[in-house]
Amino acid sequence: MQYEHILLALELISAGLAAACLAVKSQPLKGRLIACLLVAASAFVLGTNGREAFKRSNNSQNGDSLEARNIELLMRFQYFQAALEQLLAEAQKKAGADSIGTELKNKMLDHDQSKDKWTTSISDAARQSVQKNPGSIKYRLQEIVARHVVEAPIHDQLKQLQQMPEAKGPEAPVVDMLLQLYGSSGLVHGSGDGKLMATIDKSIRPGLFRDFIKLQYYDRSGEKQKHAKLAADLTERNFYQVLRIFGVIAIAMIFTLCGICTLIGVLATRKRLSPADRQSADLAIRSPVNYGFVVVYGVFVAWMSFNLVANPFVKLVLEQLKGIGHGPTAIALMTLGTYVWSMAPALIFIYMFATKPNNLPFWRTARLSLQTEPPLNSTRKKYGPFSLILIGVLTYLAAIPVNVALGILISKIFHVQGSSSPIISILLNAIGSSDALAFVIFIIALGVMPAIFEETLFRGFLYPALRWKFGPMAAMCISALAFSLIHLDFGAASQLFVLGFMFAFAYEKTGSLIPPMVAHCLWNSSTFIVMSAFFSS
Questions:
Q1: Count of CB atoms within 10 A of residue 232's CB?
Q2: Whose CA is closest to 380, among 274, 236, 468?
Q3: How distant is the alpha carbon of residue 404 from its chain centre?
Q4: What is the pTM of this model?
Q5: What is residue 251's three-state secondary structure?
Q6: Are the C-beta atoms of 144 and 182 separated by less than 8 Å?
Q7: Is the pLDDT of residue 337 over 70?
Q8: What stretches of 193-327 show up as alpha helix (H) in DSSP?
Q9: Hey, CA dihedral for 155, 158, 164, 168, is it positive or negative?
């Protein structure tokens, strides 16, 4: 609590100093007040963000959400293989025992071994998620359903579920439903009722777990027609889902190969610049005027302070995004609105502190034009819209193999479970729908908007300002480090650094924000599309 009081005091001091800076006319005094304001605001930002980073590092919510989805993914592949076995068996029966169907089945599908493999993998994954969340009814439910699907014993799991203190609270209807459907003395043929089905629809999110629970309900209540219909529908949907996953994996492999070729091409054609070319590059890349450390630092501190002051509102919105009563389109719209609300002040502060006092046009200063105009007597190449977009696509492709290799290396060495951003859990709860409008809005919110706002801030403002003081390599590293740290996503910090570096490299080579914007948009959008392909229902 004392820590909270310190942060509150720093917030009030910063607000008071900001008001004093606006009221004071004396320039020497205003300069001292601005220096004090930067110190107080920096302490407030560092303290608050440090607390937030500590909370995220101790919060396994995203990892748990991904674990639950990974269990679903394993179940999908197991179900897919079982359906494939059935199709091959039927083909064998029709064609005769001596047909190629028998040979193909014996060669590709060893039933007993594959069944044991899936049983072990799914049971272990479900058990581990329960061990990490011993008081969660949701993960107990997933373990029971998953073990039942692979025909593993569930008696001990049902007994443990019944003895949990949480089983007598608000989650009691879910526990009673599980005991009726999976217990030895529960629901029997002909005893199904609407209340039990209502509990399933209300308490279990759409997805594979709910489908399997409904199958069990129809089986135990003797509704054979509904059971057969749902089983056929589930088999068909799952079949196309797995085919879609294979398609995404194939495309990802092609993109990775193209990225490797792009990297080789860039490294092979790279040449050392002459002093004259280096000077023209400085003129083309660095900001029109030297804003100075105070202005650049002040923009970031003002933006982060504004976000932290408005943080209670943002947290309220994020909590609402996880609410059961919101559809995917509403979640997408709220995600879009929240992102714009948090990022728009950064561009406003750039205009107020940097471009307006120097009488610079904002968008031109950020170099957002669709063609570049190199300085006079410069050997730099002039790029048109097609070339700039193509360079953005190539930058995106080059980032794929680097980040895939880095992600594997980091996970092996440090056992990092992945991104800790709260947006991950929101997305995992939203992508279970096939709503096309929600999908488009998410692409705008996660792909287009970050490409505009973040590239303008980091590559359009910060990187050109750093080029006044540092060379291109140092400026790329510093801007990439800032890009990585400000996300407060330590699970993906190394990948964010690489992306920031490569986006800055594309900006350095072209003198336009269009390539990094295109690459950024493609990276975020493809990440969302891959998540949708793997984890949607």
A1: 10
A2: 274
A3: 15
A4: 0.84
A5: helix
A6: yes
A7: yes
A8: 194-203, 208-221, 224-269, 275-285, 293-309, 311-321
A9: negative
Pick from 32, 73, 14, 26: nearest CA to 531: 73
- Burial of 128 (C-beta count, 10 Å sphere; 0-12/13-18/19+): middle
Alpha-carbon gap, residue 237 to 227, rounded angstroms: 15
Tokens representing 42 are 């920096």
Q: Are 478 and 459 in contact (CB under 8 A)?
A: no
Specify which of 14-28, 61-75, 312-326 reaches the highest per-range mean pLDDT. Answer: 14-28
55-63-200 Cα angle (round to 5): 110
pLDDT tens across 460-477, in order? 999 999 998 888 899 999
Query: 394 and 262 in contact (C-beta within 8 Å)?
Result: yes
The pLDDT-based confidence of 514 (bands split at 50, 70, 90) is very high
pLDDT, position 376: 62
The DSSP symbol for 460 reads I
Residues ≥6 apart with Cβ < 8 Å to 47: 3, 6, 7, 10
Angle (nearest 5°) at CA 480 between 270 and 508:
35
Q: Pick from 506, 527, 501: which is nearest to 518 by CA?
A: 506
Structure tokens at 291: 């804003």
Contacts of 101 (CB under 8 A, 6+ apart): 88, 91, 92, 95
pLDDT level of residue 398 (50, 70, 90 thresholds): very high
Is 37 within 8 Å of 21 (Cβ atoms)? yes
**Using an 8 Å Cβ cutoff, are 504 and 426 in contact?**
no
pLDDT-derived band at 275 (thresholds 50, 70, 90) equals confident
Distance CA 290, CA 278 (A): 18
Other C-beta atoms closer than 10 Å to the C-beta of 306 total: 16
Residues 6+ apart with CB under 8 A from 442: 332, 335, 427, 430, 528
Q: Packing angle between helix 275-285 and helix 493-510, nearest 10 degrees?
A: 110
Average of per-residue pLDDT values in the chain: 80
Tokens of 110: 């060893």
User: How close are the terminal C-alpha atoms of the chain, in Å?
Assistant: 43
pLDDT tens digits, 209-237: 888 888 888 888 888 898 889 888 888 88
**Torsion sign across C-alpha atoms 409, 413, 414, 418:** positive
- Amino acid (1-letter code) at residue 363: W
Contact at 8 Å (CB) between 67 and 125? yes
**Rg of the Cα atoms in the chain:** 28
